[in-house]
Amino acid sequence: MSLLQVCDLTVRIGSTAIVDRVSFSIAERQTFALLGESGCGKSMTALALMRLLPAVAKVTGGAVELNQTDLLRLPEYAMRRVRGAQVGMVFQEPMVSLNPVMRVGQQIIEVLACHAVAPPAQQQAEAVRLLQAVGIPEAERRLAAYPFELSGGMKQRIMIAMALAGSPRLLVADEPTTALDVTLQKQVLNLLRQLQQQRGMGMLLITHDLGVVAEMADQVGVMYAGELVELASREALFARPQHPYTQALFAAQPRSDRRDQSLRALPGMVSRPLQGCRLAPRCPKVEALCLQAAPDLLEMAEGHSVRCHFAGPAVPIGSAATSVPPTAEETPLLQVQDLAVHFPIRSGLLQRVTGHVRAVDGVSLAIRRGRTLALVGESGCGKTTVGRAILQLLKASSGSVRFAGAELNGLDRRAMQPYRRAMQVIFQDPYSSLNPRMRVADILEEGMLALGVGKTAAERQAAGLRLLEQVGLPAEAAERYPHEFSGGQRQRIAIARALAVKPQIIICDEPTSALDVSVQAQILNLLRQLQQKQGLGYLFISHNLAVVGYLADEVAVMYLGRIVESGPVQQIMQSPAHPYTQLLLSAVPSMDGTGKHTGQLASGELPSPIHPPAGCHFHPRCPHAMDECAKTYPEATALPGEHIVRCHLCKAG
Amino acid sequence: MSIQPVIFPSDILLGVLLAGGLLLVWLARRHGYFLEPWLRVGQSATGMATATVLLLYLAVGVLDSLHYRPALPAENAAKTVEYSPEVMSVLDALLSPLKNGTEKTYSAPLAVHLYGKETMTRADGQQVRDYPPALYGGAQRPAIGSLLLRGLLLSLPVWLVLWGGWRLARRRRSPLRWDAALLTAGLLAWLGLSVYELAAHYHVLGTDKVGQDVLYQSMKSVRTGLLIGTLTTLVMLPFSLLMGAFAGYFKGWVDDLIQYIYTTLSSIPGVLLIAAAVLIMQSWMDQHPDWFATVAERADARLMALCFILGLTSWTSLARLIRGETMKLVELDYVAAATAFGVSHRRIILRHILPNLMHIVMISVVMDFSGLVLAEAVLSYVGVGVDPTMASWGNMINGARLEMAREPVVWWQLAAAFVFMFTLVLAANLFSDTVQTAFDPRTRQREAA
Questions:
Q1: pLDDT at site B448
Q2: Which one of A62, A298, A453, B366 is at 20 to 30 Å from B185 when CA atoms are compared?
């Protein structure tokens, strides 16, 4: 007996069907995952069945039955009783989903009172019970807290508690872990799974992450351009993906074992051709039939439906050029030694310095020409600050940054100018990194003008066109404005801008974390190809270990402003020595699709860099903590093969 | 008849403003990002209709800004031409019947006689006490109804032309709401032509205490209102932009200093500060009567001074807005990228900060305009506004103040000033509403979602 039955659901904005005849069902205790890239209509599907669509979108067909009641036919007052009481929803952004001026207890009790779950006298106790259920320690005290007093992981737990307050039969989780670190993602996913088992809820999980699907789902629906293209059990989908799009998603995953080849990414981006299969313009298997007739969702095997004329084993996309790593020079081009960035905290009438945020607290790195050094860590560990301090966008408190032997720290604007050419940067958010008021040609020219690359305007213009070609954009892009491009294309423009001054080192600050997996694969391929051609050195700042395993040559793991482990990528990935690295690696969802939940559970969250724990910063979260760990910060221990670790355990061993 | 053109400083500034407006149009045609929000303004019926009204006011204001001194009738052909000490404008020339058709004292709108009874000697020598007939319009006045009909008939060709324009816009599939603009224009033309017909024989809005036509005064006040609303902004903008952008960009002591300046300035009650400044300026001008060749010149200098005073005392709120927005922009990655290229502070401010502040500037300029027009009226009423010889709505209201107690009441002066000002301010407010919606980046996001 299925709990939720969605039948031919169609949602339109104007005349475009953004959700096109989507059908699936969710049984009790079952997790159904809707997988797809941004803009494929998965969130709209969820909003449509909660009847929370934005005003421009309209449901134009289909039925949504929850326990045999058609939700689309309910009047609004009855629907309000369904939301929260029968269907709970968890949103992506815990930071903006809580009202900042209400105590979290009040917000939970509001839900309890609204659905008359508990009589007023018992609401407080019920709220405490809910917070305990989502694993919040000291629940009574936390009820009185305001959202700003809580960390991101806490807030997401509170959102889950609120979604559970009405004891819903179905939980809709829209990208519940996308905004969280990998360790927190693991915690939240475990919590969701556990609660689902205890309460026997059905769950609709919306995600773009194959890893999350592998961890959580029983059934999977893959969406592309508003249509369900494949519907299967998780085991079947991971073992034998049948639709070319699903296959492409798997092929685009960056993994350590694909290091020696470029990623196979679908070319182009999502489009909606007027006739034929929607994937046809990008599909490696495309034939004449695909361009004429749209395929139907047909059942291929028991419980495995595919929307493709030629469903079957994968055909490789493009040629996977094996990449030869460029020969690396031994002397590092950029040498960072004991770099520290402390932000003063001022308080009181006279703005006296009363403490420091030790964002970066003694970091040493070396970047070689033609190699990639990855800087890995949870958000808030100071990795972005390292990048900015190297670029001299922030003033370092102490330590040295030497480029080809020359000290950069303490140089004034003018003296720094020659080195600006050598080091460039690519940012995470392709939307805020390009000035919306400048044409692409002007954006590319800006650096050349400021640093005197290219003597004449014609020369610079020609260079701009060459750059666009290098990053795979058409020449007419030069005359357009950034808002006319998609996220991936903007990131290409940002890369072209950095390349414009012919740098030797590029600091990539999470360049792919805002992008979809297929676009991420395109950008990673581009970065690698540029490195091979031009011998660029990369400092690749990332929290995504899969990307790091694919792209990096060396890895430095950062925790609370310090490097805790560094070494060649194979060693770090395969035999991590520091408990923190082990924890990070174990939190990465396994992609084998067997649904085994292995690995230790990361506990706790990153402490504040204002008052770091005494001794080893990691000891409060470390499963192997000893007495010594609370007293002294461990010295660097060299393991074989340039592998350095700062842990008391390794020294003893 | 030869004339001597006279250019007042305020005429120059108005010219600069108009040139600036044209420059904006040119910029908009070149840069898509600037044209786009204006197109959104044009797609709203309110935007187009109010823009038409504002353009009419602007046309009146511009006509009133083309000043000249007519030559005096030559007494002797051999002598050099002497010019009249009175400065005229093109508007004065167009409205000369109204300007010259003065009465002895008050007369009600469309009245054929004056407001107060007088003792008159009739032709047969008998003395009667009655309302004296109005001098203007002659003895044989056509009836009001027939004049209105003629106005309607005259407006028919205008309607035909507008209808042709509408057909053209339809054929070109223009996305703009030309229908709203043309309809407004048609209504205005009908109203204008009716008033034109009536004004040839009647004082449409009556006359004031010294018998001047109120309609003429109200039209002359348009320029004053427009100038106060726009020139003040012109004075205020550089201050707000530079102070705000510097404070937000450089932070540190620059920010502290600028913040101190504007918090100090905005903690002094605005009207008091303005009144004090105006009084100082006034007494200073009175001590130097030799600086000004004509009365109009002095009045103009006083208007300019008032604009400066208003501008210097009202830049703080915009500066504060701009400082906040700049602080937000500075944190964006494209500014960091520019810094990583070693781009100079000047270029970062010019290329990355200022263009991204334009929407705030646009919104606040349009929204401040109506407030300033009203401020002028209030200040003139209090007596610290424009020169008493200058036509302004504030002066009209001030003049009407004493007559409110009369029985029957003299209402038309107040009503005329009110209607003219109300139309301008309402149009400006509605227009600024559409501008704000069009320029607000959040609207764009809502449309994209």
A1: 46
A2: B366
